[in-house]
Amino acid sequence: MHEDGRLIPIQGYVVRGGDGTVVLVDTGFPDVVRGFEHYGEPIEQHAVVDELAKLGLAPGDLDLVVLTHSDVDHIGGIGAVSGVPIVMHRAERALPRPRWFDGTWSDLPWPYADYLRVEGDVEIVPGLTLLETRGHSPGHMSLLVRLAETGRVLLAVDAISRRAELERGFNAGAWDEPLAFESQQRVVELAAREDAWLVFGHDPDQRLEIQYAPATYD
User: Fold this and answer.
1) What is the Cα–Cα distance from 151 to 78, expressed in whole angstroms?
2) Quick count: other Cβ atoms within 10 Å of Cβ 122?
3) Which residue has the higher pLDDT, 171 or 203?
4) Structural contact between residues 75 and 100, judged by C-beta atoms closer than 8 angstroms
5) How far from 102 is each of 4, 54, 105, 155, 207, CA to CA, in Å?
6) Residue 157 has what pLDDT?
7) For labelling alongside 68, which of 54, 102, 153, 159 has CA 20 to 30 A away?
8) Rounded Cα gap, residues 211 and 73, in angstroms
């Protein structure tokens, strides 16, 4: 996506838990969506099903879908993986419908699904812990992933969207800016304490440092 002249990557992740559970984290935009003007001009789109196929997976191979929060660029492709239980923060699922990034309501309804509502920090499968990092949205979650070879990876998602936010503080427009700043600080401190690779949610420079499917981290 282009937003105000900047390139904004939209990222999702597949995590295989220590027990073999396959978890999809976020689903990007829907294939066709009204409201791109909220984000900018789309440069290229990658459908969830196509990205899964690069890893040798189909939607039926998924055991769980984690939606880190309800912004449309994170939940828009959920229809492609219907039938898979969805993990969300309780406060986020309580919202009337998914949001645009500016906090206005989209016209997309919540999909019918088996929702597993969580609060606080919780290890949902061995090696994958959901972290409550509210502020960007009412129930935003980041993730701490423990990998055998790569080590610890902290997926900040929109708790820290871009590295530049660490220099100027959390970007304006969050649902609760003071709480968002507290969550940002928590993520930074946790990454340092865990010696974790900190992956930002939409960083145009860091995207050049990350491997994408079909490459994997072990």
Assistant:
1) 29
2) 15
3) 203
4) no
5) 14, 32, 9, 22, 23
6) 96
7) 54
8) 20
> What is the percentage of the chain residues whose pLDDT exceeds 70?
88
Span 20-43, mean pLDDT? Answer: 73
Query: pTM of the entire structure?
Result: 0.90
What is the average pLDDT value for the chain, to the nearest integer?
88
The per-residue b/e assignment along 164-182, b for 16 or more CB within 10 angstroms, e otherwise, is ebeeeebbeebbeeebbeb
List phi, psi (to 5°) of 91.
-65, -30
Decide if pLDDT at 61 tops 90: yes
Report in angstroms the alpha-carbon separations of 181 from 8, 104, 130, 147, 168. 21, 21, 18, 28, 11
Alpha-carbon gap, residue 7 to 46, rounded angstroms: 15
What fold is seen in the domain 2-209? Metallo-beta-lactamase; Chain A (3.60.15)
Grouping H, G, I as helix, E, B as strand and the rest as coil, residue 176 is: coil
Whether the per-residue pLDDT at 159 is higher than 50: the answer is yes
